[in-house]
């Protein structure tokens, strides 16, 4: 006795791939200028307002500040526990460095040429 074959016929797979390719948009991709290179379609670029771009930059700055503040606090805590006999100043200094680096990145991002 041989086991039945459960293979999918090839024409069905080809039809699916042709359908997927046919549904892709035909608009050209245009690179935008900013913090990082993001590809957008021409329709998306026409619908973006300056306020939305500024809001995205501010959101990115806030999340960057929280990450750098937390990282500095964690690194300062490790140094405080390992090297400085549980003093508070390494934690405060690490957090301050994190906020300072985040502030520099935000200032550069918000003042970049458009």
From TrEMBL:
<comment type="function">
    <text>Component of the MICOS complex, a large protein complex of the mitochondrial inner membrane that plays crucial roles in the maintenance of crista junctions, inner membrane architecture, and formation of contact sites to the outer membrane.</text>
</comment>
<feature type="transmembrane region" description="Helical">
    <location>
        <begin position="66"/>
        <end position="84"/>
    </location>
</feature>
<protein>
    <recommendedName>
        <fullName>MICOS complex subunit MIC10</fullName>
    </recommendedName>
</protein>
<dbReference type="Pfam" id="PF04418">
    <property type="entry name" value="DUF543"/>
</dbReference>
<keyword id="KW-0999">Mitochondrion inner membrane</keyword>
<keyword id="KW-0472">Membrane</keyword>
<dbReference type="InterPro" id="IPR007512">
    <property type="entry name" value="Mic10"/>
</dbReference>
<keyword id="KW-0496">Mitochondrion</keyword>
<keyword id="KW-0812">Transmembrane</keyword>
<comment type="subunit">
    <text>Component of the mitochondrial contact site and cristae organizing system (MICOS) complex.</text>
</comment>
<dbReference type="GO" id="GO:0061617">
    <property type="term" value="C:MICOS complex"/>
</dbReference>
<keyword id="KW-1133">Transmembrane helix</keyword>
<comment type="similarity">
    <text>Belongs to the MICOS complex subunit Mic10 family.</text>
</comment>
